[in-house]
Amino acid sequence: MRLLLDILLPPRCALCPSSEEPVCGPCLARLPYMTGPACARCGRPTAIPVEDCRECRGRRLAFRQAAAAVAYEGGGRELVRHLKSGRRRAVAVPAGAVVAALLDPGGCDAVCWVPGDWWRTVRRGCHPAELVAREVARRWGLPALDLLEPARLRRPQRGLGPAARRRNVRGAFRVRRSAAAPAAVALVDDVYTTGATLDACARALRDAGAEVVDGFTLARAVRW
Ligand SMILES: [Zn+2]
Ligand SMILES: [Zn+2]
Predict the structure, then answer these.
(1) 9 occurs within a structural domain
(2) Domain CATH code at residue 188
(3) SS3 call for 73
(4) 115: in domain
(5) Is residue 28 part of a domain?
(6) CA of 66 to the centre of ligand 2 (A)
(7) What is the per-residue burial (b if ≥16 Cβ within 10 Å, else e) of 193-210?
(8) Most buried pick, 1, 35, 85, 192, via CB within 10 A?
């Protein structure tokens, strides 16, 4: 099976022709890291550190704060594309590594992830956000908990405006019946676009007893 996969997809860096896999050192070093000042609430890059910003001010967000490791552009966007394609599961390891190294788990007790639609997970054979979350949890030394599930079918967020995104995910997630939400939860997803998905998941976790939910994403859409 491994040999067959190698013939179909020769092992190499996901971002360049280097034979080093899954992502080579130089490509990893060149990712658009979000190391500058940012909004403490929603993670949007800003000129100086701020407590809130025009993107999150006045919004009732259920998460306490959200932070991302890389900008959703250039190599950051490519990395997410490979992760979502499901054909390069191994990129979840460096993806989780950059999230765990750059972002601080604060006082979180456990790590969970934004759940995928079952049919997309079946088609890909994996769920990217879960793979990243498990790697992050391992590196932070925290338990990875399968807390959330879809409560109903929803259409993909892609192509929807901010208001439509909020409507599309409202009530779309719930905590599994058998699960108990810890007091402080780190919620992991691949991309932060408007924060609507993280907000909907955080709301479900808060309704199930979590006091604090912090969002952590590999990438973030950047609007200056
Ligand atoms: Zn490379
Ligand atoms: Zn903000």
Answers:
(1) no
(2) 3.40.50
(3) coil
(4) yes
(5) no
(6) 9
(7) bbbbbbbbbbbbbbebeb
(8) 192
Domain range for 215: 60-220
CA 31 to centroid of ligand 2, rounded, Å: 22
54-92: pLDDT as tens digits: 999 999 999 999 999 999 999 999 999 999 988 888 999
CA of 46 to the centre of ligand 2 (A): 9
Q: Give the closest ligand to the alpha carbon of residue 21.
A: 1
* Rounded CA separation 73/167 (Å): 26
Tokens of 34: 């979000």
CA dist., res. 104 & res. 67, Å (int): 9
124 CA → ligand 2 middle, Å: 33
Query: Near ion ligand 2, which residues have CB within 5 Å?
Result: 39, 41-42, 44, 53, 55-56
pTM value is 0.92
Asked if residue 31 is part of any domain, the answer here is: no
Distance 217 CA to ligand 2 centre (A): 15
Number of domains in the chain: 1
